[in-house]
Amino acid sequence: MSLDYYAYEAKQFRNTWNCLYFGYFGTFEDTTKIPPMRFTDEPPEPVGGLKGGLQWPLHVFGKVAVRDSADRNRNMIFDRTRDNCQILTKEVCPSRAVLLIDPVTFEVDLKVKGCTESEDKHLSFLAVKISDMITLDSCLRKSAYTSKLSTLWFTLGIIVYSVEATISVRVSGGSWPDGLRAKFAAHTASIGSQELILLGSGNDKLPVSGDGTITLGRRVASVEVDEELNVCVKAWQGGEVTVHTEMSFKAKRAGRSGGSLDVGFSQLDVSVAWSLLSSDGD
């Protein structure tokens, strides 16, 4: 039986973390308590390949997190229980911005749901430290890591001189029609056309709360201080696109920006809370 290098590294990472940080930053399982929008009002981040007989689509649960030097705790990117799996197809591949001063660690513990719990399979188990992040310009870096039954591709957007943008969207007029698929995304010029998917509804009903707020799967992005953040909305039914619109917000060091998007059948209020990034947990 061959050694699964990244799974071994993941076990070693847990032991090392406990030796270095247990008691100072809580327990290994703790998630970060540093919130987004920390300095908004008071200024101071896909499955690439499969093996082991797995077939698409996959019902995936588990955790994907990033740990940085701000508090060493988990900054969750993906967090699903077995009873709340995400369905991944071959085509479909943080709670706060990640601070890239010291090396950061991507921590992955993902499983594929079987017919019974005993038939669950470990899809990926790894802890990868990314240390080569010194750059003068914003850029994208991609890396692949194979562990257990899959190969995961990580896309890391490094944004220099950045601020944190926390995005929220609310239906303020009309309603979102049933059966209309939607995608909410954000991007900046500094990393080209690479989109950060805020929400992809798939075939599911758009998650709208009682006050009209749309529950985004991701809502935090990093933006260069002299750049703009573009928030776009796309809706389609069948193969026909019915809505494709976006609006731009000039980056700020603190405070809020807002605007409205008219998508025909409803009015969407988009707001962005700006903040400098947290460098520590205090």
Automatic annotation (TrEMBL):
InterPro entries noted in UniProt: DUF6598
Residue intervals of the DUF6598 domain: 51-272
Organism: Urochloa decumbens
Name under which the protein is recorded: DUF6598 domain-containing protein
Matching PANTHER family: OS07G0486400 PROTEIN, OS08G0141000 PROTEIN
